[in-house]
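Field reference: sequence -> structure
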Amino acid sequence: MSLVKRTRILRRAQTLWARVGLRARLEAFILLALLPMVGLVVVLLLQERSQDIERAREATRLLADRGAQQQAQIVQQAHSVLQLLTLVPDIREASPERCATMLKQATNLYPWSTGFALFNPDGNLLCSSNRNRPMNVADRDYFRKALATRGFTVSNFLIGQNSKQPRVVTALPILDDDGSVSRMLVAGVDLGWLAELSTEIAHESGGIVSLFDSQGTILARVPDPQGLVGQPMADHPMLRSILREEVGIIEGEGLDGVPRISGFSTLEETGAKIVVAVARDDILAAADRNLMLGTGVMAGVVLLIAGGVWVLMEVMVLRGLRDLKASAAFLSSDLFDPNAPCIPAPLHTSEIGQVAQAMRTMGRTLSAIAFEDRLTGLANRRFFEAHVERLREQPAQDRDPLAILYIDLDGFKPINDEHGHHTGDIVLKEIGTRLGRCVRQGDFAARLGGDEFAVLLALPDGQQGHYALDVARRIIDSVSAPIRVDDLDIQIGCSIGVALWPTDAADLTLALQNADRALYAAKRAGRARVVSYSDLPTDTALAT
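Structure field:
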């Protein structure tokens, strides 16, 4: 392009720009200034979408791991029960009536048990909790293995003859003084945990839980509208990938032809696979809804700003300029009246106030997106402080009584020191989940940092102190339950300080300080304590 032609284009652009009004110029400037922010928000929303998918992937694996851990715990419990029963004389001696009675009692005690039985080394049944007709299991793999090893043995998954449900059989030999096998004690273990896990997963995500044996045959599937239970699936591409690995996450076409995200884990002893699968389209639909919502909010914000600038320019600038122009024309005319001076019309600021209010609302909306603790999913300290500030600004007649619970974990620091921060993060994530289950919809839970948490409870009428202490004890019980992390049982506790607002203090800031004082007193009193500020002696409350 020649220099002359470029000059002409530049002059034409300058001419067009000169014709653009002041309001349009300001609008263009503001829109250009907002473009980087819009781009940043869109990038953050896309990142959040990716994180939603990754969280869904990790959730399927964790659920599968939990199923495998539950099965391992049940098998370990079965081992312990069999060891205990081998010490009972009536069972060791195979007393016909007393042996069967003892085994029936044991079956009733343990919900995972499908029954207990005692066999001779030749496989013939001596007594059973379920039946006493002749039976021989000498040809069973688990029986032969238990005889050969003279130790605890777990079978592959079997299908019950009566229940038609998958189960495993555990066997423990009873040894004579010379080390030979005199009896074989056997227990059946059902898959009740699979139904519970499946119900929870279906409620949370609409997913499918499947159990495959080591050869790829479907032993259980919930739900199973296609009736796939009992069919061999080892040739399916997804299952081939699963059978090659111990644990993992894969994406692809599921057994029903629907694209799915599948997390899987291997059950110890049996080599079976538990698979938790959720529809990828459902996850993407939820992530896309969040993306569209965020984009819509951002577009609305931009339009709101542009509209506000348009109105402000009209009210505060252009109207005044038109009045000044009219005044100048009036001054130049023959109709000039010195007793009626020309002044601009009064400025109307109500539009500015509305735009400012809208901007504050927008700020609260956008800031809420960033006020979540990514590790636990609870509110973070910044969100907690902003929430407290909003409560403080409410009119007195609109305020509801609150219970303030300050929570500090007991024994958490050694977890990071001994097992690493990865284990500590998993523990904190589980604590956040448990804390969320201990409060109601509408209550406020936050992680203040490290191992410190806070809960704000809206108090029902007539249940102020009683209800707050009940929730605090429920939190202590929930947090104290063992947490399974990488084959480790992690157990911690927590101490809680409770203060009521406005009962303990009319000022919310002072009420928060009172809750902190109560927590300090709880920590001094020992672990797993809840202390209410109202129960502190007056001198102690002031000293802390």
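Note: Residues 333-361 have pLDDT under 50 and may be disordered.
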